[in-house]
Each structure stands twice: as C-alpha cells, then as structure tokens.
Amino acid sequence: MDCIFCKICNGDIPSYTLYEDDKIKVFLDINPISNGHTLIIPKNHSVDLDDTSLDTINYTLAKAKDIKKLLEKKLNPIGIRLVQNNGTLEEVKHFHLHLIPFYNDNNKMNVEDVYKILNN
Ligand code: 5GP
Ligand code: ZN
Description:
Shape: globular
Bound molecules: guanosine-5'-monophosphate, zinc ion
Structural class: alpha+beta
Mean pLDDT: 97
Strand order of the largest sheet: 1-2-3-5-4
Number of helices: 3
Distance between the termini: 36 Å
Radius of gyration: 14 Å
Strand content: 15-25%
Order of helices and strands: HEEEHEEH
Largest sheet: 5 strands, antiparallel
Number of strands: 5
C-alpha cells in the first residue's frame, strides 16, 4: 500500500521518533504548526475514526497522555491541543493523533533541534 505513515512505521521513510513499540509509533511532524508538534500513529493501517478499533484508539490515546507530559516538561507550552482529523481534513489517510503545543511567542525552531531538546 502506498501510505506514507505505513512507510514511516516500517522504516522506509525516516522520522524523528520519540517512542515506538510493536503497536504504535510517535514522531515529530515534518511540517509542524509549532515546536513539538507530534503525531501518534498505530502501526496497523486504518484510515480514520470509523475505521479504527476502540482498543487501538485507547492505546494511542493512552500514549498521547504520556507524550503530553513530556512536551510540557521539556518545552513549557501554555497549552497543548489534541487533534484527530477525518474526511477531507485528513491529509494522510492513516489514523493518527496530533499533539500541538501552543506558546505565547511561537519562535519556530527546526525539527531536529526540537528533537534534541525532547531527548535531553
Ligand atoms: P492530517 O491533516 O492528515 O491530520 O495531518 C497529517 C500530518 O502529517 C501533517 O501535519 C503533515 O505535516 C504530516 N506529515 C505528512 N507527511 C509526513 C512525513 O513524511 N513525515 C512526518 N514526520 N510528518 C508528515
Ligand atoms: Zn498506512
């Protein structure tokens, strides 16, 4: 299947990975809205909310809770938005959650530098 996120899961496309296990992968968005914009995806391909099992949604959501804490600790945002897009709003048709931090001053850094901060 020609799916960018499946290719990221199997390592064909590199990503700044924050967490990975047999079920999910967590990595930085390549075109971030803000520093620390993170995607959480199940490795098993499904398209959207309708197409994804509650077990899988729960597992990705549980990890979103952990990663939210990491983003807060390392990047000190004023808040973090959790987003999941469906239909024409969903650009990549592989189920994923976004964690999008917000800041008073949005001084955007390059993704590699943000990755280094998150891994320190
Ligand atoms: P959507 O609109 O589908 O909810 O969001 C898809 C997100 O995936 C976008 O924020 C976009 O920047 C991100 N994205 C698209 N292609 C890639 C990629 O190859 N690598 C990474 N890390 N993010 C990607
Ligand atoms: Zn996929």
